[in-house]
Write a structure and sequence with these properties.
Number of helices: 7
Structural class: alpha/beta
Strand content: 25-35%
Oligomer: single chain
Number of strands: 16
Number of domains: 2
Shape: globular
Order of helices and strands: EEEHEEEEEHHEHEHEEEEHEHE
Distance between the termini: 10 Å
Largest sheet: 7 strands, mixed
Length: 298
């Protein structure tokens, strides 16, 4: 089968389409025939060597939407089940940008029934990141939250879920995104080119990676949650500062899938690329300015 991999670190040109054996599921695992797999910044980071040298070929891709083809021992899924899932790991030999992928059975969930495979594939990493960041922030209904980078994949889902949980949500993004973000649940909007108001919010989820700048708008004893481990700023003024290390969670993903079917989460796709053009998809991701996911279709 074909898979997108890297054997050397670099730019989009480092992405190779290679022939690899079809993986077999072990106990507690499923093999999925991939219908679509989103491309995310973490894939570009892996390709570029941000996570260090692996010393071997690395598979790309974390998000997946597809159909269960075969199962290992002790698995409750059945052949033909339409699922979504998240395959985490920085130095694995095979990711989800492939014709088939093996995931742990507890890392997948029923796919939403109201969207196609490409849009379903855009959900797992971004929606799980948003949900788990909100869990870490542990704000109560009625408290105030600032979401930076609110128009991006993680940011938009954070706005949606925070609104759904009863928080007072302020979105920080480009002025052109204000109307969209208000429709997704933002109570207030801040243009990203204006100064941040000091000591205003109970919590910040920093999807834009503003770092120290994102501490300014927090109350004393506020909470900062970053989305890139190791990049969170040092705490100050009693602020709790930490960063998300997203984990696969099939139970939580199933709830997020149901929220997508209810229209509470909106999956956005900008463009799909055939697997053979994975390098071109990486090049487009590098250009930035996206308001939806790029999706690889085998």
């Amino acid at each position: 089968m074909r898979a997108a991999t890297v054997s050397r670190f670099g730019g989009p040109e480092a992405v190779e389409i290679t022939e690899v054996p079809v993986p077999a599921p072990g106990p507690g695992q499923v093999r999925i025939k991939v219908a679509a797999a989103a491309l995310n910044p973490v894939d570009a980071a892996m390709r570029a060597g941000v996570f260090g040298s692996a010393g071997a070929r690395i598979g790309l891709g974390w998000d997946i939407a597809g159909t269960v083809e075969s199962v290992g021992e002790g698995v409750h899924w059945s052949s033909g089940d339409r699922v979504i899932g998240l395959a985490t790991g920085h130095h694995t030999p095979l990711g989800t940008h492939a014709e088939y992928a093996v995931l742990d059975a507890d890392a997948i969930a029923p796919a939403p029934t109201t969207v196609d495979d490409a849009h379903a594939a855009a959900l797992p990493l971004n929606a799980l990141s948003a949900a788990q960041a909100l869990d870490m922030a542990a704000l109560q209904p009625g408290q105030s939250l600032l979401v930076t980078g609110a128009a991006g994949g993680v940011g938009t889902h954070t706005v949606e879920l925070a609104h759904h949980r009863g928080l007072k949500v302020t979105a920080l993004a480009s002025a052109r995104d204000e109307e969209f973000l208000r429709t997704r649940g933002a109570d207030h909007f801040l243009p990203r080119d204006e100064p941040l108001p000091p000591a205003t919010f109970d919590g910040v989820i920093d999807a834009a990676l503003l770092g120290d700048k994102a501490l300014t708008p927090l109350h004393y004893d506020g909470t900062y949650i970053g989305v890139w481990p190791g990049q969170e700023p040092a705490p100050e003024r009693g602020i709790r500062s930490s960063a998300l290390d997203v984990r696969a969670d099939g139970v939580q993903l199933a709830e997020l899938s149901r929220l997508a079917d209810r229209g509470i989460l909106l999956a956005r796709v900008t463009k799909t690329y055939p697997l053979a053009d994975a390098a071109a998809a990486h090049a487009r991701l590098t250009e930035g300015g996206l308001r939806g996911r790029l999706v690889i279709v085998p």
